[in-house]
Specification:
By secondary structure, the chain is mostly helical. It contains five helices and two strands, in the order βαααβαα. It has a two-stranded antiparallel sheet. The relative contact order is 0.20.
């Protein structure tokens, strides 16, 4: 069973990306920024954009999740 990774604004900020830039990024990719703030976003949705920012945030989220599981 694969656990689905949910990306949140905390993950985005943790890698040094700003909220305003993220809002613009979501608009450019026709994604709902308000829903993202409220519920997070499935990692696969972000990866489907093919954007390097999405990959960077996902790597951080997975590393954070892995550290929690180990500690």
């Amino acid at each position: 069973m694969t656990m689905q990774t949910v990306i949140t604004i905390d993950h985005v900020r943790a890698v040094g990306l700003c909220v305003n830039g993220t809002r613009t990024w979501f608009a450019r990719h026709d994604l709902d920024f308000r829903a993202f703030l409220r519920d997070g976003c499935d990692a696969d949705t972000l990866l489907a954009t093919g954007d390097a920012m999405a990959q960077r945030v996902l790597e951080h989220a997975r590393n954070q999740s892995s550290q929690r599981e180990q500690g």
